[in-house]
Amino acid sequence: MSQATKRKHVVKEVLGEYMVPSDQQQIVRVLRTPGNNLHEVETAQGQRFLVSMPSKYRKNIWIKRGDFLIVDPIEEGEKVKAEISFVLRKTHVRALQKDGYWPEAFSEVAEKHNRNRQTQPELPAEPQSSGEESSSENYSGLFVNTNRRQYHESEEESEEEEAS
Question: How is the chain classified by DSSP, letter by letter?
Fold first, then answer.
């Protein structure tokens, strides 16, 4: 099977299929991705551990902070205690909530996560000063990457740095 065909089938499976977790499976939330196809997750009970991404998802499906997953436990794992079996999208989360399979601890987090994905945050529009800023320094129209934490610098701090 070619790489393009494989990718097509994996994406179709993730986007279209509805999956209910079995008794052994858990719904978890991604906290961070330390690398090497590993993701640190948290269960509804607050337990944190690493999960591995199976090879069929690698380079085909991207997982970021705040996403929800269904994982299968791994018996022999010391640090890596589970493997990803399904990546939950917002439509899957809504269906699981409607059917009563969604953990109560994640209910508020899922609603906030879905609202953030629907509305892209924009940079605040700053009034143009009298020719002090050039057009290349006006960043109000740029796309905001929601995967990165945003640090805002106040005008007082920038004036103090310029003065010293």
Answer: --HHHHHHHHHHHHHH------SS-EEEEEEEEEETTEEEEE-TTS-EEEEEPPTTTTTT----TT-EEEEEE-TT-SSEEEEEEEEEPHHHHHHHHHHT-S-GGGHHHHHHHHHHHHS---PPPPPP-SS-S-GGG--TTSPP-TTS------HHHHHHHHH-
